[in-house]
Amino acid sequence: MTLTRTNTDRRSARTVMVRPAVVASAAVLLVACSGAEATNGGLESDTVVVADYGGTTREARQEAFLTPFADEFGVRTVSADAAPSKLSLFVENERAEWDLIDLDNWDLYRFAEQGLLEPLSDDVAASDMVPEEFQEYASGGYNASTGIGYRTDSGDEPRGWADFFDTDRFPGQRALPSFAYFQAEAALLADGVACEDLYPLDFDRAFDKLDEIRDDVLFYDSFGQAMQYLAQDSVAMTITPNGRISALRDQGSPVAFQWEGGLYSWTTPAVPKFAQHEDAAMALIDQMADPEAQAAFAEMTRYGPMNSEALEHLDDDVVQDLPNSHLDVSCEIDGAGLGADMDEYNQRYLEWAAGE
């Protein structure tokens, strides 16, 4: 992937490149390209379909991004459940069901390499915290730290991943996802591997380390379920994104998040190939990169902005609750490295979780 946009300044007035949606009829496509009158704030499309993973981020996205976008452009916004495996089918069928999909940085790398994503138009403002090698396909979105969520009434504070795996000094069950989500990285860091040496992942070493706590593991199928386990004192610790712990803490539960060694990653809206409302998708991503909109999302979720200007619109206590303020003690995930390992990761972790 190559960097195509380097300007991170917002424009004083939004100008959106009008691209026609992919249509079956060449005649209709010709009319769209030849200057058919645009409606909806300069857009041809009257709808945009956004695929995500539900939960608290969907609710916050609706309030911070989708509703203001609909009000400004008169475009109907529709939320759908994301299934990234469908992206290849969209290319085969030359028709996508969604116009945007939330992708983690490692999936963005994989799917862009496979030619399943549309590069962003030059009219979409860049986000300065998106690494240059990804900016051709990514802007806006949010960052998260995946680390140790723990009960503060269970004894000493765990100081890092080694403590997560030490059930003698820190007794109690550990909640792990039933799906592959940074368990191998946590195990390798606990076993002494440096952050910069994580990839390619040494799966044999990682699963040997995970075997040490296998009898103390309670699996969860969603982050919401993990928070239930923690709130009910069914587990002493869990692997979880930081925003989930912030929400549970604010509800009064005796929980905290350990930033030391947190696995920093980011998620971005991306446009599938053959999106039917590509012009609206590009305009929405542009709005999702706006610093004030990013600040609103961060305040609601405690996931960090990818436009650092957003931090200027937040109170200090909120900023300190974001991954942006803890980068010095975090381990940044190599999206390309993890993306290359992901197929084997998924298979081996599912086998390990099933006891095979």
From TrEMBL:
User: From the Swiss-Prot or TrEMBL record, what is one GO molecular function term?
Assistant: thiamine binding
Q: Which domain of life is it from?
A: Bacteria
Concerning SUPFAM superfamilies, the annotation shows: Periplasmic binding protein-like II
Instruction: Quote the InterPro entries the UniProt record gives.
Output: SBP
Check the UniProt entry and state the signal peptide residues, or none: 1-38
Q: Which PROSITE patterns match?
A: PROKAR_LIPOPROTEIN
Taking the first listed entry, what is the main subcellular location of this protein, grouped into a coarse class? periplasm
An example Pfam family from this entry, by short name, is SBP_bac_8
Q: Which GO terms describe its cellular component?
A: outer membrane-bounded periplasmic space
Keywords assigned by UniProt? Periplasm, Signal, Transport
Q: Does the keyword Ion transport apply?
A: no
Kindly give the PANTHER family that the UniProt entry links to this protein: THIAMINE-BINDING PERIPLASMIC PROTEIN (PTHR30006:SF3), THIAMINE-BINDING PERIPLASMIC PROTEIN-RELATED (PTHR30006)
Name the UniProt record assigns to this protein: Putative spermidine/putrescine transport system substrate-binding protein
What is the organism field in this record?
Answer: Jiangella alba
